[in-house]
């Protein structure tokens, strides 16, 4: 027997808990509606950053070998103070830091990258030395100003001297800066593409430093809390990926 309920026709069902409609609507069991189920999910939370438990966890992991590339050779450059900031930041977290400064290395323009030599023994010794440092690193930090809405030529020049396989399957973090208010963010976007081509895994958390001459002292000390927070986020990502990728490389190698 059908009865009219509002605008829809409802047919009585032998099971009083279910109403069957002649309209396209889906029948819903009142039994399901009135018997909610509670699911308990246990989430393991990290200990507070400054707690003894956090210190124990940090101490349990060995320090990493991090290579920092500076990207400027210009007179009056801010790359040195940014490099000092990154170095102090990582060394406080018990990591070994090596800075590669293109001005000190003085490699010049890339005329023939290391991997373009038919006979590698003919390549300059300095290229072999730097390539070995890259291969032994657990991760990279690239420091760049923004020139004409892009990364600096000096940074591309030094990194392009070496094959992607030397950088491969290691994490990379981006640090950009500018004298203006945007902190070199356009250079950072270009660096993401560049670092991907080198087969590194670049971090989503970056350090972007606007008004760098005010944000950092000449010694590399930060003058703002916001910079410290961004730096903490980047370091955590870099450490996590560096340990994870190092374990995988040591266990299974890298794709051929």
Automatic annotation (TrEMBL):
The NADPH-dependent FMN reductase-like domain, residue ranges: 65-212
GO cellular component: cytosol
Top-level taxon in the UniProt lineage: Eukaryota
Gene Ontology molecular functions: FMN binding; oxidoreductase activity
Segments of skewed composition (Low complexity): 11-20
InterPro entries: Flavoprotein-like_sf, FMN_Rdtase-like_dom, NAD(P)H-dep_reductase
Record region (Disordered): 1-20
Full protein name: NADPH-dependent FMN reductase-like domain-containing protein
Species of the source: Hypsibius exemplaris (Freshwater tardigrade)
